[in-house]
Amino acid sequence: MRRGGRQWRLQDRIVAWLVGLIVVLQLLVFIAVDLSVNRAVASQLRQELEVGARIWDRYVSSRGEALVDSAGVLAGDFGFRRAVATGDEPTMRSALANHVLRLGGDLAILHSVRGEWRAATGAAVEELQGSAEIARHVERARMEGRATGVFVLGGRAHQVATVPVMAPDVIGWVSVAQPLDDGALAGFREMTGLDAMIRLAGRDGSQDGSVVASTLAGGPDAAGRSGVDPARIDGFVVLARDVGAGGATGAGPGREAAQLVLLAPTEAALAPYRRLQVWILALSLSGAFLAVVVAVFVAGSVSRPVAAMATAARRVAGGDFSARVTPHGGREVVALGDAFNRMQEALAARESRILHQASHDGLTGLPNRVSAARRLDEEIARAREGRGACSVLMIDLDRFKEINDTLGHAFGDALLLEVARRLRAGVRSGDMVARLGGDEFLAILPGSGLEAARELAVRVSAAIKAPMELSGTQVAIESSIGLAAFPDHADAAEPLLRRADMAMYQAKGEHLPVCTYEPGREESHLRQLKLMSDLRRAQARGQLRLVFQPKLSLPEGRVCHAEALLRWNHHELGPIGPDEFIPLAERSGIINTLSDFVIDGALAACRAWLDAGLDLGVAINLSAIDLLDDKLPDAILGHLRRHRLPPRHLIVEVTESAVMRDIEYAVRVLERLRAAGVRLAIDDFGTGHSSLAQLKRLPVDELKIDKSFVMRLVEGSDDDVIVRSTIEIGHNMGLSVIAEGVETEAGLALLKRYGCDMAQGYLFSPPLESAAFAGWCNRHRDALAQA
After folding, report:
1. Fewest CB atoms within 10 A around its CB: which of 59, 88, 297, 595?
2. What positions does the domain HAMP occupy (predicted)?
């Protein structure tokens, strides 16, 4: 070998070979370090993605629990349960729509006890109906008590939760859905720092689906969001898996399933190592010995921290956030270790916060319904083992919605915070106060029997009632508290809470601060629910019928007209009195249907009597709800035309209390009926709260004295004075006066003496079927002619 025209010396060659060898070795070392760093960073990123995937599982599970709680609020709503129990479809749809609006979700569905479709509201309803996947989801909920899952609906991923509707047994299943969209992924990114996207993949495993949610701004597929292959995205380490927690996901009615793609940018992770590689290369060129020393030093300072962090990453992936990484080496390695430690601390804090939010109310910080149920189970178990007691207080604020709507949600939140503070201060240190949702709270009182719990409930009620100074405004709010105790009222948590809730509603209905559950009230409540449900089908089953009781003219003795009375013969419970089922019909919203049945049946009977030679009028009773229907006059006139009857054959009877609900509106409806020729009467006069001035405004023709005064009519008694005065008042106002409930000859004689115009009662005839009534009228007419 020659150098500069001369032969290389051995020393030169040795130096050259040595330098060349060292340079080659350094170059190989440099290449090896580079490959090692790339592999280590890629491994670290993959482990971070695995950690992110685990956190995603918990994140989806937490959202699922929150969605289950939200669905539980809807399922526990009394009005919704009543609507489900009675089959009130409009109310069910309204409750579902309102809940979807409050939740910010897309969909709510009500299934029957066996999982059949009953009612739904929101997007993708038609796509969801008949879905085999949803049917299996509901079946899983029936087997496990509740269920959550992820489904593709309308080209979007949705998280669905299904819970039972109890009253007190399962009467249905309600499902609510929230979209897994950009906002959900943004929350996940805040927790983990990882970018993510949700794509739709074919159920056959194809990877050409479209991206429906992403945290990337201008990143992969930001423009088109379609055709993303999660296995090949340049510049990122990716991990693709099913969306649902623990890999549980569902497919919609189509052929698509939701898939989560987690992305970790490789360039950002490799950035701290670029400067280190430059240093290694510079030191390699500056000297063989120094290059070897530096290479050994760098190899040692890089490989050990990376390995330590890889071990730590695996530990974090397993859920252990306790140990910190203490890397040794260059600033970049130390910075990477510090960054890893900060990420680990942030993940631990976020996981702790998620777990806390899953069991506590976000506004007040009180335990939520799930925590309260768990605590109550524990306390009842302790009480059962020690033969002790445990009481619960169900607390609901009165007029909270009015205050919230008037003063704003911020003021309502401040009020709830103050109520929560007073509740915590009002109970003992070992008691638990929880917020169940809205303005409803629960206090669990371990070791407290009925008397001690009632005393504490009275103190809590007084504490809540004390005026509050909030945002410069003084406000006072009252509460309704229901009390139930173990073992006096129930031997398990669920029935104990249900009976405390029933006592709370009793307190609210009777305007009492505190009510204790009364044994047997649940059976009465269940009877009412059954009757409301069966009443909707009673007409179709032929269980409803009309009977008629005659009204006689006292001066002439002839039959003037008949009162139509509705009767219900229940297929299991036998005869149900109108005093019981009419209020239930008003509460369940089917009173208009019953009134239409009575009007049509009464006019049909009147037409039959008229065809048989009996020129009689027929009286029907209308409820307060009927009087608030502006379509009532048109409906009545339509029935009259259909049965070819003049309006004078119909007498409409309304009670004082019904008119007084909204006297202005009632008067307008009655005046329209009066103008059409229909006769009007005030029923049960004397039991309402109307004044003579209000009575004078009513366009009525007849005044009907309530039977409670007539049945006990004895000369010289208080009832005698009331009846005589009522007859005089009616006549002075130009009205005909009718006495109902006449059962004795003595009472009839007094009514005739006082000039009462008409009477009805069992003294003349009990209520009869239409044909039997016509026969009675013919016999009475013949007897009257002979006399």
Report:
1. 297
2. 300-352
